Amino acid sequence: MRILVRAPHPDATSSWQELGWRSAPDPAALAREHELLCARIEDGGAEVVRAQGDPDNLDSIYTFDPALLTRDGVLLLRPGKPARRQEPESLERCLDGVPVVGRLAEPALAEGGDMFWLDERTLVVGRSYRTNDAGIDALRTALPGVDVLAFDLPHVRGRGEVLHLLSLISPLAGDLAVVYLPLLPARLVELLEARGVELVEVPDDEFETMGPNVLALAPRVGLAVEGNPETRRRLERTGVEMLVYEGRELSKGDGGPTCLTFPLERSN
């Protein structure tokens, strides 16, 4: 598996307030944590493809949101967060030979954090404040032969704070996912149950600390931000090998391991 990461540009930390980060990151600690994240990804058996983030956009380290990897190549999306609208174009220059098969245009809005592949021909999408109806329609047009299943996400704290579908669920194998069940759409729960997917529940006190945000480096090999010990224990009891990394600075923009990575190869 090859995974693209974009290291924080030294000049980008000044954009933290404009982008809604929780507090100012320490540039040296941010760079150190990012390099240690790359090392943990490699520990999990994946190849890391390194690129640099944009000098005026700290959010560009969250490489997952501007695009969707399909069987044929990369579909460039159109982020719902206005300050991130240029990221698909800048990400395109970092794709290490993976072809671009299409791109979304106005009025479509869609972010990668709102979608995951349930199987080779089924894409699950969250209808959120960052992914609109036009974006879902555009995905259906761009992906003929794919069943695009949309589920409404809850308001929770509103437009000002990001709540992606992958804030609530992370698939770790074809038959296993870690979830925060209280906020997961009921129809999606029923779909997962019908598909025989085992759900490992995140406890309430570990939801805010990104308990559901776990990156699958391989089937049943997960990478998570340090902390959330009960979620980790529950996953390990199902046979998941868990790796952790320090993310005090990296997560100040509300991004976990899935957000910080972009797969250049699909596993399903």
Please give a structural write-up:
The chain has 268 residues and is of the alpha/beta class. The protein has one domain: L-arginine/glycine Amidinotransferase, Chain A. Helices cover 19% and strands 26% of the residues. It has five helices and 15 strands. The protein has helices at residues 27-43, 87-92, 133-142, 186-194, 229-237, and strands spanning 2-7, 47-52, 67-69, 74-76, 100-103, 115-119, 122-127, 147-152, 169-173, 176-179, 198-201, 214-218, 221-225, 241-245, 262-263. The strands form five sheets. The chain has a three-stranded mixed beta sheet with strand order 2-1-15, with helices on one face. A three-stranded mixed beta sheet has the order 3-4-5. A three-stranded mixed beta sheet has the order 6-7-8, covered by helices on one side. The longest helix has 17 residues, at 27-43. The protein is globular, with a radius of gyration of 17 Å. 44% of the residues are buried. The mean pLDDT is 97.
Write the topology of this structure.
Elements: E1 2-7, H1 27-43, E2 47-52, E3 67-69, E4 74-76, H2 87-92, E5 100-103, E6 115-119, E7 122-127, H3 133-142, E8 147-152, E9 169-173, E10 176-179, H4 186-194, E11 198-201, E12 214-218, E13 221-225, H5 229-237, E14 241-245, E15 262-263
Parallel strand pairs: 1-2, 4-5, 7-8, 10-11, 13-14
Antiparallel strand pairs: 1-15, 3-4, 6-7, 9-10, 12-13
Quote the distance from N terminus to C terminus: 12 Å
CATH superfamily: L-arginine/glycine Amidinotransferase, Chain A
Q: Could you tell me the strand content as a percent range?
A: 25-35%
Number of domains: 1
Question: What percent of the residues sit in helical stretches (DSSP H or I)?
Answer: 10-25%
Summarize model confidence as the mean pLDDT: 97
Write down the CATH topology. L-arginine/glycine Amidinotransferase, Chain A
- Poorly predicted segments: none
- Give the count of helical stretches: 5
The major sheet is characterized as:
3 strands, mixed
Helices and strands, in N-to-C order? EHEEEHEEEHEEEHEEEHEE
- Count of beta strands: 15
- Helix-strand category: alpha/beta
* Gross morphology: globular
Question: What is the CATH domain class?
Answer: Alpha Beta
**Biggest sheet, spatial arrangement of strands:** 2-1-15
CATH architecture: 5-stranded Propeller
